[in-house]
Amino acid sequence: MIQLCNIGKVYANGAPALHDVSLKIPAGDFVCLTGASGAGKSTLLRLLYCAERPSRGQILLGERNITRLRPRQIALLRRQIGFVFQDFKLLLKRSVFENVALPLQVQGLDRQTIHSRVYKMLQYVGLEYKLQRTPLELSGGEQQRVAIARAMIGQPRLLLADEPTGNLDNELAGEIMEMFERINLLGTTVLIASHDRELAQRFVRRTIVLKDGHILSDQRLAQARPQNRED
Ligand SMILES: Nc1ncnc2c1ncn2[C@@H]1O[C@H](COP(=O)(O)OP(=O)(O)OP(=O)(O)O)[C@@H](O)[C@H]1O
């Protein structure tokens, strides 16, 4: 369960991004944060990833207050959280395999374990036959799948994705959303930020609309499936 309690965020330059946002996201949920540019979607994701600190309020992940963690604690927390960036943030000089292996190397796992987990993950996203390519030798959709594989390789309980389909055409965007759907069905809580409310609504269970840093609406969708993981 994720809980945001009266979260406010004002950036150092004085720009207000979120105002008194309170929200509960049960484990196993599949949620889209949507709203116009500047509504606060990325800020909310970045707060959950501890890339920013709230100016006010508390954030709980499960029982844990993650509002003011030290860098070492943040690094450990991030093992439970995958983050998919709109611009992929892949290492362009490293192979697909190396990009996906990196989080496991940081954790100090042995080579054989890393090899078998990375290979399985690349099979899962359909890229096992391109593991020696570098990102620039891949299409945009393939790069995004590598980014998803890297975010999922540590088997996180929570997957955050900021405009994951923003750079893709409609068909590829649909494929990426299907991948998130499958990841969610395996039990991972998925929270995406997307301008494309229509696309998201075909897949997610719940849509939260932000406007000027406030929650405008929070709607559970009709096709919602029962949740499959308790926390
Ligand atoms: N690092 C930053 N420093 C200062 N202000 C920021 C920073 N990041 C975001 N903001 C401001 O905070 C507000 C919310 O921005 P945020 O990026 O969260 O919105 P968003 O809904 O994700 O927008 P977009 O869809 O364009 O990515 C905006 O007014 C933005 O200008």
Automatic annotation (TrEMBL):
GO terms for biological process: cell division. Keywords: ATP-binding, Cell cycle, Cell division, Cell membrane, Membrane, Nucleotide-binding, Transport. It is found in: Cell membrane. GO terms for cellular component: plasma membrane. Gene3D superfamilies: P-loop containing nucleotide triphosphate hydrolases (3.40.50.300). It holds the Pfam family ABC_tran. GO terms for molecular function: ATP binding; ATP hydrolysis activity; transmembrane transporter activity. The keyword Nucleotide-binding applies. InterPro entries: AAA+_ATPase, ABC_transporter-like_ATP-bd, ABC_transporter-like_CS, ABC_transpr_LolD-like, Cell_div_FtsE, MacB-like_ATP-bd, P-loop_NTPase. Residues 2-231 form the ABC transporter domain. Homodimer. Forms a membrane-associated complex with FtsX. Belongs to the ABC transporter superfamily. This is Cell division ATP-binding protein FtsE. It comes from Desulfuromonas thiophila. The lineage of its organism: Bacteria, Pseudomonadati, Thermodesulfobacteriota, Desulfuromonadia, Desulfuromonadales.
